[in-house]
């Protein structure tokens, strides 16, 4: 079977509402952290990672689960800030780009975070939308609800961060 499949509008609307609520549910979004700490991150697949960063005011370790939207090289991951520039993890990595990344097969690997330029972000987002059209169909309106603004895939205002692993 070829071609694309579009969800019926009622189903799509329900999925968008559920995704929006999930993004705002702190406990749900933080639940996978214990899996990564127990070295069971592989159970979540390759589209998620855990980012360890430092609080910009406290200096304490902080953790966030993020979706990988691009993996252009073995030592590079691109993640998106679904809450824009106001996300705490995003603000923290701007203050201190030294982080650690946990993936299914990597445990607390040092990495350096870098905010992508708009052209780089657009290229990553376009690759993601081609590779995962159904996921994007649901997540785009949910992220737009969270941001309070539409997303243009050709020039996204959505902050994206490249995590460059500094050791294998």
TrEMBL record:
GO terms for molecular function: oxidoreductase activity. This is Nitroreductase. Pfam families: F420H2_quin_red (PF04075). It comes from the Bacteria. It comes from Nocardia donostiensis. InterPro entries: F420H2_quin_Rdtase, Split_barrel_FMN-bd.
